[in-house]
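User: Need the bound-state model for magnesium ion:
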Amino acid sequence: MKNDVERILLTKEQIDEKVKSLAKEIKGAYKDKNPLILCILKGSFIFTSDLVRALDFPCEVDFMQVSSYGSGAVTTGELVIKKDCSTPLFGRDVIVVEDILDTGVTLSKLMPTLIERGANSVALCVLLNKPERRTVEVNADYIGFDIENEFVVGYGLDYAEKYRNLPYVGILKREIYEK
Ligand code: IMP
Ligand code: MG
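Assistant: Bound-state model below.
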């Protein structure tokens, strides 16, 4: 697995530090709101589990798996809900936790859907942001790291369902996905 990584972009230590500072920021705004932390599967399962353990105030956790039809360049595709959360969103303060904000297509569809369900507020927290790749405007409230336009794996992120269990974020060798 390690041999498929070109170089480590973010170490476990850098990520841990960032998770702590994001949790502190989130606490400032949400400590009395019992927010619903909505983990977007599968990529953010590790980030979410570290983040919620860094939140030292009451919150709830639920899970959703979504995708959007069409390629990154297509902005008209429908949102596909592969797994839905079980918590009613009405009146809730929701924090969507996502692994990476890339083109923005998926999240640009998901966020309004959550508002339509009656959430009181919907914020977005992403570990990674690739600003260069954006085709649709999406506003993230909490961003871990802005990164270059490279394909990264580890800490929950996959290539063809592999590498999620690497403890760091690394740049995948091109030969792996171009072969
Ligand atoms: P988008 O913002 O709608 O383009 O979709 C973002 C999704 O694409 C993320 O949730 C990831 O699953 C996947 N993705 C985008 N960039 C990467 C990457 O560099 N590594 C692994 N997955 C990625
Ligand atoms: Mg993926």
